[in-house]
């Protein structure tokens, strides 16, 4: 049970950081970002809201769009 809570919290944190990166790029909505980058809008919304178990492949694709390395992405969690 405790591991589920940890997973949920981690997915939320990943989603929040992706949301921050999206807004930093000037995209006000998930829909605009998803459509421009050929991502399924519903799935991307779930990722940003911590409702989807994101794969490494998808995370790497999103980080590539933002030009952020995996290391930079996760180091930003420590900075908070």
Q: What does this 3D model show about the protein?
A:
This protein has 80 residues and is mainly alpha-helical. The protein has one domain: lambda repressor-like DNA-binding domains (434 Repressor (Amino-terminal Domain)), CATH 1.10.260. Helices cover 74% and strands 0% of the residues. The protein contains five helices and no strands. Helix 2 (30-36) crosses helix 3. The termini are far apart. 16% of the residues are buried. The model has no long low-confidence stretch (mean pLDDT 94).
List the helices and strands and how they pair.
Blueprint: H1 2-24, H2 30-36, H3 41-48, H4 56-66, H5 70-79
Helix pairs in contact: 2-3
Distance between the termini: 26 Å
At CATH's second level, what is the architecture?
Orthogonal Bundle
- Rounded radius of gyration (Å): 12 Å
CATH homologous group name: lambda repressor-like DNA-binding domains
- Molecular shape: globular
Mean pLDDT over the full residue set: 94
CATH class: Mainly Alpha
Return the domain count.
Answer: 1
Number of strands: 0
Helix content, binned percent:
over 70%
In the CATH scheme, what's the topology name? 434 Repressor (Amino-terminal Domain)
| Helix/strand structural class | mainly alpha
Helix and strand succession? HHHHH
The biggest sheet amounts to: none
Task: Give the low-pLDDT segments.
Answer: none
Number of helices: 5
Strand content: under 5%
């Amino acid at each position: 049970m405790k591991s589920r809570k940890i997973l949920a919290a981690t997915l939320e944190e990943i989603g929040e950081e992706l949301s921050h990166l999206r807004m930093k790029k000037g995209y006000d909505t998930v829909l605009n970002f998803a459509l421009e980058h050929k991502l399924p809008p519903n799935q991307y919304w779930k990722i940003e809201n911590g409702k989807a178990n994101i794969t490494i492949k998808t995370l790497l694709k999103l980080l590539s769009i933002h030009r952020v390395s995996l290391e930079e992405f996760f180091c930003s969690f420590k900075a908070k």
